[in-house]
Specification:
With about 210 residues, the chain is mainly beta. Helix content is about 15%, strand content about 45%. It has a 12-stranded mixed sheet with strand order 7-8-9-10-11-1-2-3-4-5-6-12. The termini are far apart. The N terminus is likely disordered.
């Protein structure tokens, strides 16, 4: 009986991530100041207004119409995050995501915090002494946290272990500014491996 129970637990654990979300999510990006002060044009250009996110088996690509972090590509097999800024058109930067970040975070979960595109979402609140980031997520859009077991930079590993999914909304909250990503389209589709190819003719610089 004990052996049967162990087999059931293993099979259930596997099945819970056998339907990882594969496809793309489109987000609109907005920024709001605490006192409704006009956002500087330079900041608007820096964060952009539209972002498209593709993912498959932990690999992801995110393209944003921004001057900063216009492209991100994460390849789990390499454990590397590649990114580029539009102000450096010929340069592709690469970060070792196994580098440990020094900030200490507190976490809190709020159940049934919002409904986005018909998905009932819980909210993960991630806090430091100076900032807060909220992630709205739904169990229907599963993501196996094992893909990010070495992604310790930016607390990616810890966040993914908690939410076990992609997010549909993210609010990065500073004392006087909030930057938000809100999903406006979720599309399940087969992603080709070539869609994660790095841009050609780039100078690769380690960050």
């Amino acid at each position: 009986m004990k052996t049967v129970l162990i087999i059931i637990i293993i099979l259930t654990s596997f099945n819970s991530f056998s339907q990882d979300f594969e496809g793309e999510i489109k987000y609109v990006i907005s920024a709001k100041t605490k006192f409704d002060v006009k956002i500087p044009i330079k900041l608007e250009n820096s964060i952009g207004s539209i972002s498209t996110f593709l993912t498959k088996r932990g690999a992801y690509k995110q393209e944003t119409n921004s001057t900063f972090m216009a492209l991100q590509i994460y390849l789990p097999k390499e454990g590397k995050l590649y990114y580029k800024n539009n102000i450096e058109s010929d340069t592709l930067r690469v970060k070792d995501v196994q580098k440990i970040e020094s900030q200490v975070y507190e976490y809190e979960i709020v159940k049934n915090a919002d409904t986005i595109l018909g998905y009932i979402c819980d909210k993960l609140i991630q806090k430091t002494n100076s900032t807060q980031q909220d992630f709205y997520y739904c169990a229907d859009l599963k993501l196996n946290p094992s893909y990010f077991k070495d992604f310790v930079a930016f607390e990616k590993k810890e966040v993914t272990e908690i939410i076990k999914s992609v997010f549909l909304r993210s609010d990065l909250i500073y004392p006087n500014l909030t930057i938000s990503y809100l999903a406006v389209e979720v599309k399940r589709r087969k992603i080709k491996d070539e869609e994660f190819d790095l841009p050609k003719n780039q100078i690769i610089v380690k960050d």
